[in-house]
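Section 3.1: Structural characterization of target chains.
Under the original work plan, the team committed to producing a structural model for every single-chain target entering the pipeline before any wet-lab resources were allocated. The record below documents one such target. The sequence was received from the expression subgroup and is listed exactly as submitted; it comprises 231 residues.
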Amino acid sequence: MKFSPFDKRGYPVVSAAAGYAEWAVTYEETVAVGLDGQLLSDIKSVTWKQVHQAADLACGTGRTGAWLWQQGVRAIDGIDLTPEMLAIAERKQIYRRLLVAEVADTGLPSKTYELCTLVLADEHLADLDPVYREAARLLVPQGNFVLLGYQPFFLMNGLPTHFHRENGDAITIRSYVHLFSEHYRAGSNAGLRLFELNECVIDEEWLQTKPKWRAYLHWPVSFVLVWSHAA
């Protein structure tokens, strides 16, 4: 569903491509590190050392790719809509290749990857079905799809993904609210089986890296779903 009925701030709205192109320069220093790192570390159903090839969908500046590299994954292909984000990812020298493409139409080879990831991007997709189908197409049998997202709870409380321009103006990146039931249907319809669901709740440790978020103490802020290819 659209985010607009929940919007309490009324910031100007831009597309994901335009927004992340503008945000790219300051993205890594402004995005909350607690949104993704701990959730990835807490995953129990993926054996990272057995991942020979990974597809990092919506790879952005390469935060997820860098984390995978630290776990020993050495062949990582990154896909993103925004050349400006990919330029930063390329500097990390951890990707086998980087391509400008839609996450639902990557152009990558079928049945190739033990792992696909989509991190902090699903809220920008109007429809979840295409990206789940694409992940299923890319995975080898028993491969895993890790989808880590911004909590719909935050969006439904009027707090969208946004960034600040140099002049201080806040800009919202167009977002959509997807309930967990919607994820479950999309994944199941794509032939995937849900293995793990974890959520991150803002606590005192989390606030050490983003103290301005204290008003949201005890709020669930992000989640991760781990799927396995059933075929």
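The radius of gyration is 17 Å.
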